[in-house]
Design brief:
The protein is mainly α. The chain has one domain: Winged helix-like DNA-binding domain superfamily/Winged helix DNA-binding domain (Arc Repressor Mutant, subunit A). It contains 5 helices and 2 strands; from the N terminus they run H-H-H-H-E-E-H. It has helices at 5-19, 27-43, 52-59, 63-75, 102-118, and strands spanning 79-85, 92-98. A two-stranded antiparallel sheet has the order 1-2. Helix 1 runs antiparallel to helix 2 (27-43) and helix 3 crosses helix 4 (63-75). The two termini are 25 Å apart.
Length: 119
């Protein structure tokens, strides 16, 4: 059975977490990163920005637990941060999104085109 494009793009990202290991990193910690990555991927189109604070509340994790996992996702060049205003509109916060490389960007564009044809 052939994977559809959306499955293929997620697989490309997840393989980087699985295959690019850091010293002293356990399989359980990498699995947590896959979960966090998938959550960011799924939520990034929401009206409310994806932030570490939002993720920590959703998952019942401390900010430091989320930040530790995000640090490794950013080191793998999978997630990027964009500075935004906080909810009150005064301070700074960081919106999280998936960082595409050339290959994943082409697949994402193909997915978007295929979705437009189905409507």
């Amino acid at each position: 059975m052939q994977l559809d494009l959306s499955q293929e793009i997620i697989r490309m990202f997840i393989e980087r977490i699985v295959n690019e290991t850091f010293p002293d990193e356990t399989g359980a910690f990498r699995l947590q990163q896959i979960g966090l990555f998938t959550l960011i991927y799924a939520l990034q189109g929401d009206k409310e920005p994806v932030t570490a604070a939002r993720l920590s509340v959703m998952m019942g994790q401390t900010d430091s637990q989320i930040h530790r996992q995000l640090k490794n996702l950013m080191a793998r060049d999978l997630v990027e941060r964009t500075q935004i205003k906080n909810k009150q509109g005064r301070g700074q916060a960081w919106a999280l999104s998936i960082k595409h490389n050339a290959k994943t960007k082409r697949l994402a564009e193909a997915i978007a085109k295929a979705g437009g044809k189905r409507k």
